[in-house]
Amino acid sequence: xxxxxxxxxxxxxxxxxxxxxxxxxxxxxxxxxxxxxxxxxxxxxxxxxxxxxxxxxxxxxxxxxxxxxxxxxxxxxxxxxxxxxxxxxxxxxxxxxxxxxxxxxxxxxxxxxxxxxxxxxxxxxxxxxxxxxxxxxxxxxxxxxxxxxxxxxxxxxxxxxxxxxxxxxxxxxxxxxxxxxxxxxxxxxxxxxxxxxxxxxxxxxxxxxxxxxxxxxxxxxxxxxxxxxxxxxxxxxxxxxxxxxxxxxxxxxxxxxxx
Length: 259
Known about the structure:
Blueprint: E1 10-11, H1 12-18, E2 32-39, E3 53-60, H2 63-97, H3 114-125, H4 132-148, H5 159-189, H6 192-197, E4 217-218, E5 227-228, H7 244-258
Antiparallel strand pairs: 1-2, 2-3, 4-5
Helix pairs in contact: 3-4, 4-5
């Protein structure tokens, strides 16, 4: 197994000094602040839930202390990697021993709920079939299914149920986003700088809303005849010199005037 290695320590004090920013408060003013980074190879990311790197900030008085911090950081992350690989292989072996058949009723139709069916589908694909990013996206989609039609049996799901789930996505996304923003705002109030200044510098931005109908907006010309995404504005008829219909009228008028 290839061991994880730390990159060259990044001197944060020099960077902040070059930008004209003050030093970060520390117990010993003689120490220097470094940022340690360990980049995870692509082959190991599946064991670490898709993580691409580990970072840590340390204070070091001299080169020997910095080397000790780097060595301790590498040993800790290598131990975590070994445990993650062992747990992954154990989970893979246990999943292979499970029965792959789904429960079937007397009428021959599947009796498992949509949530169980989708979770099994994601679990089967999570063992190296697709990238961790794909699994993360599919688990995010599964949240909306669980909140709407996840308790319905697969054999009884109708097109109306699917349509209702799609319609509920923007509402659920907005609700969860507001809850997350509220939680983050509460966490910000507990920060040291917030307690010291007793104010929040900038409010958090509104979270993006999921759903296909929330990803489109009117074109820049506000013609009211089309809706398009920013990358397809050139297709809007109002962004061209004239519409096809008006171009045809002008050409016919010019022909009549020459007669």
